[in-house]
Amino acid sequence: MNSPQIDLRAIIKQEGLRYTQQREAVWLELQSSDSHRDAENIYFALRQKSINISRATVYRTIEILVKNNLVRKLDLGDGKNRYESKWGLTHHDHLICTKCGRIEEFFHEGIEEMQKEIAAQYNFTLTNHVHQLIGLCENCRADEA
Asked: Which residues, at least 6 apart from 11, have a Cβ–Cβ distance to it below 8 Å?
């Protein structure tokens, strides 16, 4: 990928849609932060920047970005999907607190090697994986004590 804008143009065209400033704004908004935000948060951030955009355009654009592997979708089990740009990021997994919603990113070589071994054992070719470890963070555990 040479440039996010060039890639987005090609992807939008491939999806049979017009490339618009609003769709580009969704992509740029996702790239502007390394936090894990839901579609409503992205929509309101764009509206606060005086970008005239519909919720439908935000949701459709995010799904196109997810489908084309530019954005990762996280299901935290609370009914709201969160999204993060994959552009320029190295692979990582997530620890998710079910009480406060805190998300910690991590990478563990042992997990990566173990999944390769398991895939080979079952004659399986991995194309993707998602590790989400769900529990309570240290602060929330302390609050319960």
From this structure: 64, 65, 68, 70
The conformation of residue 37, written as its DSSP 8-state character, comes to B
Q: For residues 1 and 44, state if they share a domain.
A: yes
Instruction: Compute the half-sphere exposure of residue 83: CA atoms within 13 Å on the CB side of its CA.
Output: 27
Q: Are residues 22 and 47 in the same domain?
A: yes
- Which ranges in 32-133 belong to alpha helices (H)? 39-48, 55-67, 109-121
pTM (2 decimals)?
A: 0.75
**Whether residue 78 sits in one domain with residue 38:** yes
pLDDT in tens, the chain (145 residues): 444 555 788 899 999 999 999 999 999 999 888 888 999 999 999 999 999 999 999 999 999 999 998 898 988 777 889 998 887 667 788 888 888 888 888 888 998 899 999 999 999 998 877 788 889 999 998 888 7
